[in-house]
Amino acid sequence: MPVVTSDAIKPSGGVSGTSQTLFRLNNGFGIIISNDVVRRCLLPKTKAPDSQELCLSVLKLWKVACRGNAENLKILMESPVSKRSIVELLTSDNPAVQQGCLALLCLYTQTPYGRRLATDNLNVHILTKNLMWSITMQQQQREEAAVTVLENFAAENKFFIQLRDVLADAVIVPFTSILRTVSKYDQHVLVSLMSAVGCLTRDDVIRCSFAHNADCWMALVDVVSNCRACDYKEVLYALLGFIMNLSAVASPAIQEHAAALCICCVDLLKDNNGDIVTRAAGVLSTVLPQSSEAVHRALQQNVVGIMHRLLKRNEPRITKYAIQTLAVCTAASRQAREELLRSDKKLSDLRHLLGSSCDETVSGNAALCFAHCLELEGIASNLLGTDIVLLLLRHCSSGRYQHRSAEKCGHCSWEAVPL
């Protein structure tokens, strides 16, 4: 059987724009697709060696004909035969055919124009499902290509919109399956996958779908423990960022798994990797407000003492997370207030934040911690001789702060004056 090759439009010096134009003007795409033998070889279940070789040659020819040529990209993508084959051949039994199909998709997704053509013409539901299937096959070259395609598509708003109603089947279920067997995958691929799926969750509807999926949360909690056990630092870092993003959306699924997740994250605060510690603190700051049980478990692990020590690092991000966590804990527990006071009788670290922070969230949460601690008997006398009243009144009168923070600072300044 004669094999279609790309030699005619791929001279030794590289792809010729003239050759690509001549191929199009002479109906090269139509001639190939109208051939019955070629159409049969483009079916995903074709197993005859000659047919698979022909299929691979056609994919290579399409890639060469379309590289850098907008008009050819358009013609190929608008053909019913080719646009169906590009999606279906991702599940071919032949690894080379799968790779050839992924290479063609990579070509399309490299540019905004190509991505728009693909999202306008391909079945995004089946395409995404097949891309996720390619990742689960655990063949590194194909995994990397599939993740790259998915990540590139995630730059298109229309891709988000078309995925919203089919997200569970196309992404969440296979993604959850991958999380449950994380040790079988290459770390680089997992990090890239987290990035790609994280890009998808920029869409509010998609983020809410993930946040309300109980199976996904169960897998996320398990994989945090597994990544630490396997020393998958890069994956763990990406994973914690993904969890922070999801936990910004309150849901029963998060609340159900909050305690187990927070136990893992408090343990991670002892990690020797500062970036891991920062993100673990970030997760705690967003998850603890959603579960009283999680707060109780975290207090048992001395989260107040750990967060107080983190405040002393004077690093803006971790300070923001630590003071937010302390505000949640001191609001929920007298024990937390007493622990904070035992470690800092004059609450000098909180006073420092009130006096030096330009971040309203930080100073507002510091004021909240003060308000909670002032409920303890005798605390006001400990603050005699400090600048606390002046600091609180300054924040209360500042126009930079929202009404609620100013009101809280005013309340604290009143409570801080011993009668």
Automatic annotation (TrEMBL):
Family annotation (Gene3D superfamilies): Leucine-rich Repeat Variant
One GO BP: sperm axoneme assembly
InterPro entries, per database record: ARM-like (IPR011989), ARM-type_fold (IPR016024), TTC12 (IPR043195)
Source superkingdom: Eukaryota
GO cellular component: centrosome; cytoplasm
Family matches, as PANTHER family: TETRATRICOPEPTIDE REPEAT PROTEIN 12
Protein name: Uncharacterized protein
